[in-house]
Design goal:
The protein is mainly α. The protein is built from six helices and five strands; from the N terminus they run ααααββααβββ. The protein has a three-stranded antiparallel beta sheet with strand order 3-4-5, with no helix packed on it. Strands 1-2 form a two-stranded antiparallel ribbon. α2 packs across α3 and α2 crosses α5. The longest helix is centred in the N-terminal third of the chain and has 22 residues. It is globular and about 40 Å long. The N and C termini lie far apart (38 Å).
Length: 172
């Protein structure tokens, strides 16, 4: 039983609390991972089609940021995830329906994939399910003022970029 919509840019812990998911519970973790995999697959499909981009970002390079994607393309992706959802995830997604094809649970998951794959959001360390990403959208001024925090972080390591949906590194 979800407690209510959580806006897509809110932290993971708030999202999990709204869904009453405890990530230390193996069944809850498995459900979260299934939802993340569905969103990740849709992300890959979306990024193959430049028509998802807002006109002013038509020449943007991949990986695309969620802010570069048109609202229509994002909503269509949410509907595609809903339509292709497995039986297990569909039960959870039912809780997030808000009408007109909108679903706050799917929107949060898809947005989190965009945010995780955008190297501009990286802080130099891989994230995982147990990390609180409450400051993922914050700039360096939100953290401590050390020389390390002033350095530009590209999110690229020697193995590529970290993909939390697959819990590993991928070539850019």
């Amino acid at each position: 039983m979800a407690t209510g919509p959580v806006y897509k840019s809110r932290p993971r812990q708030e999202f999990l609390a709204a869904l009453r998911l405890d990530i230390s519970n193996e069944h809850h973790r498995a459900l979260f991972n299934l939802m993340r995999e569905e969103a990740s697959r849709e992300y890959e499909v979306m990024c193959e089609d430049r028509s998802i981009l807002k006109p002013k970002y038509a020449s943007a390079e991949r990986p695309f940021a969620a802010a570069q994607v048109s609202e229509t393309a994002f909503r269509d992706a949410v509907i595609r995830i809903w339509t292709g959802a497995g039986a297990t995830t569909r039960i959870m997604y039912e809780r997030g329906r808000t009408g007109g094809g909108d679903n706050w649970i799917i929107a949060w998951m898809l947005y989190s994939i965009f945010r995780a794959r955008d190297p501009r959001n990286k802080r130099g360390t891989p994230s995982n399910l147990d990390n609180d990403d409450s400051n993922a959208d914050a700039g360096p001024e939100a953290g401590t003022s050390t020389e390390a925090s002033k350095t530009t972080v590209t999110g690229q390591g020697p193995l590529g970029y970290y993909d939390p949906a697959r819990d590993g590194y991928r070539k850019a």
